[in-house]
Amino acid sequence: MAMAGLYRRILPSPPAIDFASSEGKQLFIEAIQRGTMEGFYKLISYFQTQSEPAYCGLASLSMVLNALAIDPGRKWKGPWRWFDESMLDCCEPLEKVKAKGISFGKVVCLAHCAGAEVQAFRTSQSTLDDFRRHVITCSTSEDCHVISSYHRGTFRQTGTGHFSPIGGYHAEKDMALILDVARFKYPPHWVPLSLLWEAMDTVDDASGHRRGFMLISRLQRAPSLLYTLSCKHESWVSTAKCLMDDVPFLLKSENVKDLEKVLSVVFTSLPSNFGEFIKWVAEVRRGEDAGQSLSEEERGRLVTKEEILKQVQGTRLFKQVTQFLSSSTSCCKKIQNLSHQDNLQDVAASVCCQGAELLVGKSNPLNGFCCRETCVKCIKDDGEKPITVVSGTVVNGDTEQGVDVLVPLSQAEPSCCPCGPSKCMGMHYPDGNDVLTVLLLALPSETWSGLRNEKLFHEISSLVSTENLPTLLQEEVLHLRRQLHLLKRCKDDKVDEDLGPPLS
Questions:
Q1: Helices and strands, counts by H and E, the chain
Q2: Cα-flanking dihedrals φ and ψ of residue 226, to 5°?
Q3: Shortest CA distance to 436 belongs to which of 321, 335, 343?
């Protein structure tokens, strides 16, 4: 029986020139000689084929993020942190992208969520000359890359809207190299830059907006080192709505007269699964690496996390939150649960889930995994300050995997116990109090503008002000605030209307 299928397409030429053709090779050599292929090498090192017919936007973005060596902060498969299309899901459900593709604005949103520096322009907001200037800038550097959103029909290609990175530029011919992520369909090819502009200067019927291009580069530092917002759990929509819409409304409408009432309004309004929304980021490594010294990068990240934690716990707001959560008046069970701090043995038990992820390379461990052992210990690394390590052994049938989590502590000299005790005295590691403190700091300033009591407004404004925070904590808080703004755009379905960077 005959089976229908397609094996690639013939690249319409002109207007495109196949990268691997004689003419394409000559353009490549000449562009290299003129220094406008500098961005090509990193991109080609991470060139990938979109895994679904509608995943061109996701494939283009994951390719660029990997080329820029941006750490996703979460595992892909095994122990490896690596951007993959399946991880780019914070602005649009993957099933929806698989069925209908993704808009320009939502790819921009994904890039922001992934921790990149993004400048996005629709053709209605830019010019051909501006576009050429940006392409030249990124083609002569390996520190930024251009993703173009265009209509294939302009090049006489089959299909409609498409995304792909631009791999280089030939100045004399004024041609751009498109690294087409649909490699099952067309190879990389050169096209006239002016024609690419025409292809971008088309309307996406799904969004009603013109297409365009985005410039993606690294932020000066990792966007978040200790805390981050998570969109993996479906509760993020309700939590974002609560924080950005409900809390300001409640503070404005209720009779709020003192700081205790402010904290009560905020904390009691949080959904029960709030803990899935904001998390502290742990450093994880395989148990068999335990005999090895920490790398300079690992130690540097851990030291920075510890400094951020110390800075959080040194704020006046942290003291107010801690006092409120421990007071007899905060008798609400929900509030008590928010302030609960797992001891390190509890943290060790949760390592089992992470260990299962390491074994199967999936974000949701399969049934049948169990944590056989947990252990809390301190290790000395080259005479440096002791490091607290939470270890777990995950078993699944005949397979087992040891996992170590490096725990940031906010005191200089932890007093650690060997395996067994339920708690190591004097240790201050991330818990509910500091997570809630950071969340309050990250709320937009307009959250408090509805407070009717002027004295209370000035008091809370002083407590949550980011102006006088230490630099590390300030950057951490502002990143969380940008994440909140992005999530609000997603919730309100306005990511295609506002392409600018989220407010800080």
A1: 17, 17
A2: -115, -40
A3: 321
Tell me which H or E stretch contains 373.
strand 370-379
SS3 content of the chain, % helix, strand, coil (to 5): 40, 20, 40
Q: Is residue 180 among the annotated active site residues? A: yes
Examine residue 15 and say whether the peptide bond preceding it is cis (omega within 30 degrees of 0).
Answer: yes
The amino acid at 48: Q
Structure tokens at 69: 């060596």
Q: List the catalytic residue out of 145, 162, 170, 189.
A: 162
Q: Are 309 and 226 in contact (CB under 8 A)?
A: yes
What is the DSSP track for 233-253? STTHHHHHHIIIIIHHHHHHH
Which is catalytic among the residues 56, 109, 144, 424?
56
Q: Write out pLDDT tens, residues 98-153.
A: 899 999 999 998 898 888 889 999 999 999 999 999 999 999 999 999 999 999 99
Please say whether the beta carbons of 163 and 149 come within 8 A: yes
Token match 């921009």: residue? 108
The residue among 248, 258, 271, 285 whose CA lies nearest residue 445 is 248
**Residue given tokens 């942190």 in the structure block:** 81
Among the listed residues 109, 180, 204, 434, the single catalytic one is 180
Complete DSSP assignment for 47-65: ----SSTT-HHHHHHHHHH
Q: Cβ distance 492 to 484 under 8 Å? A: no
Residues 136/36, Cβ–Cβ less than 8 Å: yes
Q: Find residue 166's DSSP bridge partners.
A: 146, 178
CA separation for the pair 202, 200 (Å, rounded): 5
Q: Sign (positive/negative) of CA torsion 47, 50, 56, 61?
A: negative
Q: Label residue 380 left, alpha or beta by phi (over 0 means left) and psi (-120 to 50 means alpha).
A: beta
Rounded to the nearest 10°, the torsion over CA 440, 446, 452, 456 is: 40
Amino acid at 433: N
Note the pLDDT tens digit of each residue in 207-228: 899 999 999 999 776 656 788 7
d(CA 185, CA 147): 19
What distance in Å separates the CA atoms of residue 336 and residue 439, rounded to the nearest whole number? Answer: 17
Radius of gyration of the chain (CA): 25
Does residue 56 have an active-site annotation?
A: yes
Closest CA to 503 of 459, 441, 443: 443
Question: Could you tell me the sign of the dihedral formed by the alpha carbons of 439, 441, 445, 449, in that order?
Answer: positive
First-to-last alpha carbon distance for the chain, in angstroms, is: 61
pTM: 0.74
